[in-house]
Each structure stands twice: as C-alpha cells, then as structure tokens.
Amino acid sequence: MLNKKSVDDINVKGQRVLVRCDFNVPLQDGKITDENRLVAALPTIKKLIADGGKVILCSHLGKPKGEPKPELSLAPVAVRLSELLGQEVKFAADPEVVGPNAKAAVEAMKDGEVILLENTRYRAEETKNGEEFSKELASLCDVFVNDAFGTAHRAHCSNVGVTKFVDTAVVGYLMQKEIDFLGNAVNNPERPFVAILGGAKVSSKISVIENLLEKVDTLIIGGGMAYTFMAGLGEEVGKSLLEEDYKEYAVNMMKKAEEKGVKLLIPVDTVVGDNFSNDCNFKVVGRGEIPADMEGLDIGPKTAELFANAIKGAKTVVWNGPMGCFEMPNFANGTIAIAKAMADLKDATTIIGGGDSAAAANQLGFGDKMSHISTGGGASLEFLEGKELPGVAAANDK
C-alpha cells in the first residue's frame, strides 16, 4: 500500500540531513510539560548520528502565524534534546529560520553533529507551502527525512515543499511506524476488526464512519456523537451534545451498517448530570430516558459492558475519541472500560488514533498496553478516512 523509502534505505555519511520532526510540545514558563514527542523522535535522530550524517532538525511549535513569538521559540527543545541525546544540539536562533546563524552552523558541522532550526511557522509562507521558503530549507541539505506524522496531513514547506528541491526524501522511523500500523489496520486488517469512535461531533467523523463501514466487522459509537444517533431514532437526549443537521445522516449510517452486515453499536444507557462539572448531580438512565434538563456525560455501565464484550476476541481494534468527559473522574468510567478491554486483548493489534483518546489512554495508565498510539490526531483521522496524506506522499517510493 504505502511503500516509502526510509532512513534504512539511504547512506547519509558526510551528508547534510534535514529532519522534519514533530516538536510541537506543550510549554509552561519555558519548560516542556510533556516530552513524549521528543522521545518519539530519538530513534531516527540517533540512527542518523550513528551513520555519520550532519543532522539539521526542524519543527513547528504552536501557531505563531508567521510572526516570531519568543514564547513559541524552540530554544527549550534544543536544551532538552541535548540532555536526551547526551550530546549538544546547537540552536540556530534566526527569526527567519534559515538565516545567518543557521547557515554558519550548517557550514561548520562535522559528521554526527546536530543543530535545531527555529520554529518553521515563524515564517508566514510555511503553512502556505511557499516556494521561496521551501527552497531556503532545501539549500541547507542534501537529504530530507520526514518524521513528523502529526503534520503529515498538511502540505507545508517543511514537509512537502522542500521535497521538490531535494533528490532524496525519505521517512523516519516514527513516520514508518504510523504508516505500518494505521495503513495495515485500515487496508489489511486481521479480523474480527472493531473500530470505536467517540468524541464530540459526528460532523468531524463523517468520512471516517463511511470509510470504516466498508472495512470493519463492528463499529462502536460513543461519546458526544452518540446523542445525534439517539436523537435520529427519535429518542429524548435532553441537553446533551446534539448536531440537529446530522440526525438523518446518523440514521442512514445505521441502515447502511445493517445492509452490510456490520454491527453498529450505540449506548443502551447513559450517565447524565444536571450541569457540566465533576460535582454535578448525576445518575444512570436507560436508553431514551434522558431528562429534558440533564445532559449525557458518559456511557452507562450496561453500555460499557456491551462495548467491552464487543471488543473481546477482536484481532484488530482502532479507537479514536473518548466515551465521555474523561477529564472529570466521575465521567471517566466508560473511557476506562474501553481502554481496559483493549489492554486485555491477547494477540491483537490495538491502535489509538492520537488526540484525546491517546491522552486518555496515557493518563489512565493503559498506554503501554497498546500496540500503537498515534502521534497525530488530525493525521490519523485522515488516514482512517482513507485519504492520501501529503507529507507521506511526498517521500520517495521504494
């Protein structure tokens, strides 16, 4: 399906290697509060160092919208990366990214050294895939490595534009892993194949639902989007999240699933509260019994059991989106039940598609029990929709 050249297919000794990483990490007072993305990038960086490449790292951070904002500088990342790699990562502090500091640092590099460029989104052209900035980035390197799955669904200078001006463009280990897991799960799954979709909106998952209905044996719908399905069936959903315009769509999807012999499960009971807070008054109600003045905040215990049983025996499970407001302990039980059911599977491929479900699995302590947790929320969703990702497509084919 996606057979791309990787860092294992090239010789980088003495070559200048530009690596697009995903260092879009949360910062508080200049300190990195979650370094998962830095750790995930290490295998590719270490491989290039060991092979004698001159390693030039680049990434975006936040949304500076084309203006150098000091609080979105990658300087703290260079410091932490130096510690993680056990060698200096020089920081090229050019607000224009490819500036005098970067050029001089690259010029002086020895094999196996590492430098980090400033936030690529300091340049307005970055997100517009402007040719000038793409050429500037390409001028620094002989080889380009894309290891940033988190932005693979966007065609920007630092992941797509640059590839037009270099001969060799390959993927890193992190990108390869995403392609292998997500690509195989969607295109060549071991069966039974169960997909679980949660999160707030049906509208943001339309293409995902449509693509997965063609491929799965069971589709589980939970989280805020479930109320649109319930309302479509004429059930009372009170003050729960609801997309009126998508009720008919939800009903059509249920019909389509039935025609295809796909099991489509929606909640049979709901935990409802009288306001959106952990200490609200809450209770469990059956299907269609949500009081007019209350809102659904999690799937109920019967639903958690129903969903967990549907996951038992699966060989491939893909999960995207929590079952309820998992950030509030009183409404995390549904999401915990899903994570636990996946974690308990033996000999199965379990994949979490980035974003909130990844945060939930990690926070609730199930992260290390999964086969793969995607590093890209939006990118993994587009993968599940069956779309081609520009950042992946731009790499050389094997």
UniProtKB/TrEMBL annotation:
Primary localization class, coarse: cytoplasm
CDD domains listed in its UniProt record: Phosphoglycerate_kinase
InterPro entries, sorted: Phosphoglycerate_kinase, Phosphoglycerate_kinase_CS, Phosphoglycerate_kinase_N, Phosphoglycerate_kinase_sf
Binding site for ATP: K205, G296, E327, G354, G355, D356, S357
Keyword field contains ATP-binding: yes
Keywords carried by this UniProt record: ATP-binding, Cytoplasm, Glycolysis, Kinase, Nucleotide-binding, Transferase
Pathway: Carbohydrate degradation; glycolysis; pyruvate from D-glyceraldehyde 3-phosphate: step 2/5
Record-listed E.C. numbers: 2.7.2.3
Binding site for substrate: D22, F23, N24, R37, H60, L61, G62, K63, R121, R154
Reactions accelerated catalytically: (2R)-3-phosphoglycerate + ATP = (2R)-3-phospho-glyceroyl phosphate + ADP
Enzyme type, top EC level: transferase
Domain of life: Bacteria
Keyword Chloroplast: no
Localisation per UniProt entry: Cytoplasm
A Pfam family the protein falls into: PGK
Listed Gene3D superfamilies: Phosphoglycerate kinase, N-terminal domain
GO molecular function annotations of the record: kinase activity
Family, per entry: Belongs to the phosphoglycerate kinase family.
PANTHER family: PHOSPHOGLYCERATE KINASE, PHOSPHOGLYCERATE KINASE 1, CHLOROPLASTIC-RELATED
Assembly: Monomer.
Protein name: Phosphoglycerate kinase
Originating organism: Eubacterium album
